[in-house]
Amino acid sequence: MITAKRKVSVSLDEDLVEELEQEDQGLSAQVNQALRAELDRRRRNRLLVELLDQLDAEHGPVDEPLVQTYVELLQ
Residue 35's closest CA among 10, 59, 53? Predict the structure, then answer.
């Protein structure tokens, strides 16, 4: 699938540019990939918060001592 492109100007930290330029892939492609991954992460986080809010509304708040017990078991 070909996505329409829009040329924009951004300023990036020098160390990031240097590291990205060491890759075989072009800078624009890498920035697109990174932004897409970050936006996907934000969407998933927003949906998770919505789900947790919904569960709280339906079942009440989480039992924090019980959560702490399971956290300790997992460590």
Answer: 10
Token digits of residue 18? 């240097």
Which residue's structure tokens are 């039992």? 63
Residue 51: name the closest of 62, 66, 65 by CA. 62
Contacts of residue 25, Cβ cutoff 8 Å, sequence gap at least 6: 33
DSSP 8-class letter at 67: H
Query: Count of CB atoms within 10 A of residue 20's CB?
Result: 17
Query: 56-66: per-residue pLDDT in tens?
Result: 999 999 999 99
Query: What's the pTM value of the predicted model, to 2 decimals?
Result: 0.74
Write out the two tokens for 3.
């996505």
Residue type, 36: R
Residues near 62 by beta carbon (within 8 Å), at least 6 away in sequence? 56
Which tokens is 70 given?
Answer: 């399971």
